[in-house]
């Protein structure tokens, strides 16, 4: 069985496939599921929900065994827009239900209580199995957990060895939420890193696998993305080795001030 993180009664497989800017989406999703992935991550903003759905169906694996996440884009967070866009996402995916629906980026123009209220309604009406957030700060997590009528199960954020996310991780734990790491190999920056490569060599693993294992070993869900089929298997092979406390500490010390790789117009004021 695929390892999973449980948050508020909802299980999230600890390794998933990220599909942002993925080429040949349907085939990669299908192959990932055949390898053993049970968690596929997409978003309205990626424009590939249709292909993700095709890949899930083509895999031949029972629908109930695969967790599909999609994310509502920040321009769709007003209740009416959110409800319409969720139905559109389902139509694109051609799936019976969205397993996990996230707010992709916070939008200060729309009250969080209204957005989460609409998401909770979508859950109660059976369009969605669980709700969560993405790119939320400590303050926003506090607000979300206070105003949401339904449990907020996760926060998906940029997380890798070069970026210290201790504050957000502590807030997730405090609220009983899972943390999901996007860009878990820092968009390729893990490749060729001397420390990660040296530790990987000791375990017969790659630098990227060490980066992923570092997060998984802390109970953080990872959703690496790759356009190479051989990497799909590599990114999944994280459970036949463990990092020592000394290695974990050494990787932890790689974090630095300029480590963030994703920052744009919709970014909140980061912790």
Report on the structure:
This protein is of the alpha/beta class. The protein has one domain: NADP-dependent oxidoreductase domain (TIM Barrel, Alpha-Beta Barrel). The protein has helices at residues 25-35, 49-58, 79-93, 112-124, 138-147, 166-174, 194-203, 207-216, 229-236, 245-252; strands spanning 4-7, 10-13, 17-18, 39-41, 67-72, 98-103, 128-134, 152-158, 178-182, 221-222. The strands form two sheets. Strands 3-4-5-6-7-8-9-10 form an eight-stranded parallel sheet. It has a two-stranded antiparallel ribbon with strand order 1-2. Helix 1 (25-35) packs parallel to helix 9 (229-236), helix 2 (49-58) packs across helix 3 and helix 3 packs across helix 4 (112-124).
How is the secondary structure organized here?
Blueprint: E1 4-7, E2 10-13, E3 17-18, H1 25-35, E4 39-41, H2 49-58, E5 67-72, H3 79-93, E6 98-103, H4 112-124, E7 128-134, H5 138-147, E8 152-158, H6 166-174, E9 178-182, H7 194-203, H8 207-216, E10 221-222, H9 229-236, H10 245-252
Parallel strand pairs: 3-4, 4-5, 5-6, 6-7, 7-8, 8-9, 9-10
Antiparallel strand pairs: 1-2
Helix pairs in contact: 1-2, 1-9, 2-3, 3-4, 7-8
